[in-house]
Amino acid sequence: MAQLIDGKLISQQIKDELKEEVAQFKAEGIDICLAVIQVGSDPASSVYVRNKKKACAYIGVESRSYELPEETSEEELIKLVEELNADESVNGILVQLPVPDHIDEDKIIRTISPNKDVDGFHPVSVGRLWIGEKGFLSCTPAGIIQLLKRSNISIEGKECVIIGRSNIVGKPMAALLLRENGTVTVAHSRTKDLKEVAKRADILIVAIGKERFITSEYIKEGAVVIDVGMHRDEANHLCGDVDFADVEPHSSAITPVPGGVGPMTIAMLMNNCVETVRK
Ligand SMILES: Nc1nc(=O)c2c([nH]1)NC[C@@H]1CN(c3ccc(C(=O)N[C@@H](CCC(=O)O)C(=O)O)cc3)C=[N+]21
User: Fold this and answer.
1) Is 44 exposed, middle or buried (0-12, 13-18, 19+ CB in 10 A)?
2) Residue 164 forms part of a structural domain
3) Which atom belonging to ligand 1 lies closest to the Cα atom of 44?
4) Residue 148: which domain range?
5) DSSP conformational letter for 157
6) Mean pLDDT over all residues of the chain?
7) Secondary element (H or E) of residue 161
8) N or C end of the chain: which has fewer CB within 10 A?
9) How far is 197 from 187, CA to CA, in rounded Å?
10) Is the CB–ligand 1 distance for residue 209 below 6 Å?
């Protein structure tokens, strides 16, 4: 039987630890505030934003919401971000992605002050990550490292294969696994013999965005499998990039969807909010 890696439980433990830390900061007169900006009203985005605000309330961080209409111009959004950069009562700024097509996402990410970049998406944060300097870590990959560590799965010396090379997951995941002394391969849509490459993995991280794409044919017996995907299937059930029922019997440990990586993303966002005030 594979070990089920319970992201819901582990994220709860992390939030409880953060809640205590936030209370200590409060006692010293230090409050933390996260500004959350959503442009438009995509229902999936609204769910995530609501979950982020709930997590803020739980650990004792103030969340300030900015719900802007779909037609908001790039200039208006940049102006708001600049105001929040200058506002000393705001510690972190999160612009929910994706933004509408008429707004340049990269330009918005670069406008957020690197000191308030709780998503870890700013080029300064990305650079710090790759050279091993302290900085904000991208939440999903940082959450995956916590899942592994808190499940007593060692990374050092292991063959780690990441499928997917996005700026939000694949690339920062590679940097973090490398930092933990893993041997890292980043595979992607143009990788030849993907099954063979995936089968090398002791730890397989799947972030390809294709519903139940990874079957047991991609798995070395006893591998650890981390599923970053999130889809709604025909039956309206949440599922991941991994065919869980097929893969689980061949893995030694595996994350479910929901209840795996997703809740960890939010816990690590909360960690980054607290990081803004740590000495
Ligand atoms: N600036 C920005 N930062 C983000 O971190 C960001 C973003 N934009 N845009 C969208 C993605 C997606 N994302 C998720 C967060 C939590 C769950 C999560 O909690 N999932 C639950 C299920 C939630 C449900 O029921 O739908 C689970 O997997 O158990 C999923 C996805 C953050 N993102």
Assistant:
1) exposed
2) yes
3) 26
4) 139-262
5) T
6) 98
7) strand 159-163
8) C
9) 8
10) no
Query: Which residue has 């790759």 as its token pair?
Result: 130
CATH number of the domain encompassing residue 150: 3.40.50.720
- The count of structural domains within the chain is 2
DSSP 127-146: HHHHHT-S-PPPHHHHHHHH
Whole-structure pTM value: 0.98
Tell me how far the alpha carbon of residue 275 lies from the centroid of ligand 1, in angstroms.
20
Q: Is the pLDDT of residue 1 over 90?
A: no
CB 136 within 8 A of CB 94: no
Q: Which of 25, 27, 82 has the alpha carbon at shortest distance from 277?
A: 25
Alpha-carbon dihedral sign for residues 138, 40, 50, 259: negative
What is this model's ipTM? 0.95
Query: Which residues form the catalytic set?
Result: 52, 96, 119
Alpha helices in the chain (DSSP H): 7-27, 43-59, 74-86, 105-111, 123-131, 139-150, 170-179, 194-198, 244-247, 261-275
> Does 57 contact ligand 1 (Cβ within 6 A)?
no
**Interval 161-189 mean pLDDT:** 98
Answer whether residue 165 is part of any domain: yes
Instruction: Tell which one of 42, 47, 48, 227 to mutate to probe ligand 1, the residue whose CB is within 8 A of the most ligand atoms.
Output: 48
What span, in angstroms and rounded, lies between the C-alpha atoms of 198 and 193?
9
User: For the residues 195-212, what does the mean pLDDT come to?
Assistant: 98
What backbone phi and psi angles, to 5 degrees, belong to 253? -155, 145
Token readout for 238 is: 């949440």
Q: Are residues 195 and 160 in the same domain?
A: yes
Mapped onto helix, strand or coil, the DSSP state of residue 34 is strand
Confidence tier at 98 by pLDDT (50, 70, 90): very high
